[in-house]
Amino acid sequence: MIQRTALVTGSAGFIGFHTVKRLLDEGWRVIGLDAMTDYYDVSLKERRHATLLQNAGFEAVIDRLETPGVLLRLFEKHRPDLVVHLAGQAGVRYSIEAPRSYVEANLIGTFDLLEAARAYPPKHMMLASTSSVYGANTEMPYSEMHKADAQMSFYAATKKANEMMAHSYAHLYDLPVTMFRFFTVYGPWSRPDMAPFKFTKAILEGRTIDIHNHGDMRRDFTYIDDLVTGIVALAECVPPLVDARDEVVEHDSLSAVAPWRVVNIGNGRPEQLMDFVSAIERALGMEAKKNFMDMQPGDVPATWASAELLEALTGERPATPVETGVQKFVAWYRDFYNC
Ligand SMILES: NC(=O)c1ccc[n+]([C@@H]2O[C@H](COP(=O)([O-])OP(=O)(O)OC[C@H]3O[C@@H](n4cnc5c(N)ncnc54)[C@H](O)[C@@H]3O)[C@@H](O)[C@H]2O)c1
Predict the structure, then answer these.
(1) Atom 7 of ligand 1 has which residue's CA nearest to it?
(2) pTM given for the model
(3) What is the Å distance from ligand 1's center to 321 Cα?
(4) Cα separation of 198 and 91, whole Å?
(5) Chain mean pLDDT for the chain
(6) Which residue ranges does the record assign to the NAD-dependent epimerase/dehydratase domain (predicted)?
(7) In a mutational test of the pocket of ligand 1, which residue from 48, 71, 89, 100 has the highest number of ligand atoms less than 8 Å from its CB?
(8) Which residue has the higher pLDDT, 296 or 155?
(9) In this predicted model, what pLDDT tens digit does every residue of 230-275 receive, in sequence order?
(10) Cα separation of 205 and 118, whole Å?
(11) To pair with 224 at 20 to 30 A between CA atoms, which of 21, 87, 177, 263?
(12) Residue 235 Cα, ligand 1 centroid: separation in angstroms?
């Protein structure tokens, strides 16, 4: 069998690391690009890459997406069949502090990636977007068929822009594109700036945890292994060209003018934030000291994914219960940080 090549951007990131691991397990050759930005602990990113480099099928490139010529050269050399674009500046809150970093990584970086793909078209491009693009929407669960035109943070605005930039390239150059909308992902090797990690660390260190909107928050937490199962399954669901369509799946977000669709990858079961905190407390066997606060600017009180399209396309649907996912995360954390 001919080995297929995937280019994964953000391969030293939380989701990128797990995605590369799964692709390697499934026999892909993987080129990973990551700039090792200092948005959070760089040594965690280095440890992720070091783990991946134990597999001979993985090659790492340390550079920024927007370094002139870097993506074009990578595409020319490796001619990837699949591109999974996960590099980017994440985080709702940091986009208030440092909005320009979102312009550079998310807007210019994604533009450079699309230009490289235009020159050397892969069979399928998959790009990360976020549940945050649903912004001020109140109709739940969030469906890909709903309009999502009222972003509440600049982070979400850059991700919505990415969706539409990719749509125009899909239309103009017949480039098949799947946009993922991820919902609060957690699990081993996760991001230190996200709540599950922050809460676990603070509880273990005896520090108080900040609970926003006085705990009245619901999040559709998605366990990393379920997310990666969705990504890898969707890799095989290439959006068909406009004139090559027969039957269309119900509620499909497929564009009428481009081989482009957007798919939620979320649990479909929102959890109360306080229940999630209780699951961490149970897994640690420790009680958290809590500081109840107002809502943070740019944030939304609830997220809830419709997982119908993901299931209709792939037969997969996230299923890991929060209790199990949190136990696995906490076990990893204690082992990794030796505490
Ligand atoms: N984790 C979540 O819950 C979640 C939810 C919704 C969307 N997303 C999106 O999914 C993607 C992956 O998220 P993650 O949680 O793995 O984040 P992450 O920060 O762990 O990974 C992103 C990686 O991209 C790299 N990077 C940043 N800017 C770069 C640039 N200009 N050039 C090259 N590399 C660069 C970083 O060094 C990092 O390793 C991001 O686009 C994020 O916005 C994540």
Answers:
(1) 130
(2) 0.98
(3) 24
(4) 14
(5) 96
(6) 6-236
(7) 89
(8) 155
(9) 999 999 999 999 999 887 787 899 999 999 999 999 999 999 999 9
(10) 49
(11) 177
(12) 19
Give the model confidence (pLDDT) of 34-78 as tens digits. 999 999 999 999 999 999 999 999 999 999 999 999 999 999 999
Q: Cβ < 6 Å from ligand 1: which residues? A: 10, 12-16, 34-37, 45, 64-66, 86-90, 105, 109, 128, 130, 182, 184-185, 191
The pLDDT value given to residue 327: 98
Choose which residue among 31, 86, 151, 194 to substitute to test ligand 1 binding: the one with the highest number of ligand atoms within 8 A of its C-beta: 86
Q: How far is the CA of 105 from the centre of ligand 1 (A)?
A: 10
Kind and range of the H or E run holding 129: strand 124-130
Q: Whose CA is nearest to atom 12 of ligand 1?
A: 86
Report the catalytic residues.
155
Instruction: Pull the structure tokens for residue 186.
Output: 């957690």
What are the structural domain ranges in the chain? 5-183+223-267+304-319
pLDDT value of position 247 = 76
Closest CA to 89 of 61, 112, 65, 72: 65
Q: Closest residue (by CA) to atom 28 of ligand 1?
A: 88
Question: Quick one: which of 157, 178, 218 has its CA closest to 310?
Answer: 178
DSSP string, 175-208: --EEEEEE--EESTT--TTSHHHHHHHHHHTTPE
The mean pLDDT value for 87-112 works out to 97
- CATH class, 5-183+223-267+304-319 region: alpha beta
